[in-house]
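Handout for the seminar on molecular recognition.
Each group receives one record of this type.
Step one: identify the two inputs.
Step two: read the structure output and locate the region that could contact zinc ion.
Step three: write two sentences on what you found, then compare them with the reference statements printed after the record.
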Amino acid sequence: MEDDIGLVERYIAGETDAIEELVMRYQKQIYAFIYRMTKDMEESKDLTQKTFLNAVKGIRDFRKTASFKTWLYQIAVNTSLNHIKRDKREEVEFEDSVASSQSGALTSILENEKREQVRKSLDTLPERQKLAVILRVYESLSCAETARAMGCSEGTVKAHYHSGVKKLKEVLKEKDYEFSS
Amino acid sequence: MSSVHDEIQELINIYLKGNESKEIKDKVESHLRECKECRDELAVISELRKVEVPDPGDLFWNTLPKKIRITAGEEKPGRFSFKKLFFSPLPFASVVMILMLLILSQTRNKNINEETFNDPLSASNMDYSDLNEEDIPLFVNNLLLDENYSLHEDISGNSYHSEFASLDAKELESFNDALKNEGLHGG
Ligand SMILES: [Zn+2]
């Protein structure tokens, strides 16, 4: 199988079908990451498309010293953070009312609701902590890759990640969450 | 947090992926048996991993790559780029060809110039060592001649030298006189 950099070079050289192969390779990962950040399928579909278009636009800035995957995650992080910030400004009041009306249903121990609880607790984390946890836990990025994608040092990633996980533990304990192991 | 827990917690994500080495597996499991803090961490992370993402469906996956290609193609209509020039084989080959032709023609011109410069008939390159006194008038005339024709050097590269080379001394003298008269009376 041709490597990512080979496909990038072919695309830059004018072989436009190379970009289709790159999109096919990463669309599911990028969509899943964005969904975990936004929790909205339609929005995630749009943002996945936007991420790839931004990547194509800036493909000449891609330095072969980093992996294409990490570079793509970096664009996905920026694309989704920009969107979330814009969204937050518009929908603060709406989100507050939805959150308070749902909080009563979260004490059930049924598996689905447990997951919902975990999912919700992830949302209580500050943005950078949430990002570090998602990239490391779900996207299986190494510390170095996460640092590159987030545009910070490995030390900062570790700090965000550990305080994120610690906070999740506390939040879940507070809610008497039963760990299955 | 001590470095042992730190190290184990870094390994937990690898451990949960299930393709870790035997060494990592043993290390993580033996630590987990005796450390509640890391067990809790593992529990949180494995719970997080259970949270699924809804699938937008095959229609989305099958059309997105083409959509990106088409939309991206529309956004940058034939923009010229040097990088593009050097990454694609055909333009690259033609650039190399042009460069090679330029270099070749340069070296050829250089050779021609050197030949002209070393022309043995040029006054400056003449060997005067075996001249005697009788030759001097001819030598002076030749110098004048040299000045005359070098001012009128043909740009096409044809040299007057070859024509004069076949003339003997007398013929040259009369030609020189004719030239002088032309200079006085002509335009
Ligand atoms: Zn520990």
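Reference statements: The CA atoms of residues 4 and 68 of chain A lie 6 Å apart. Residues B 5, 8, 31, 35, 37-38 surround zinc ion (CB under 6 Å).
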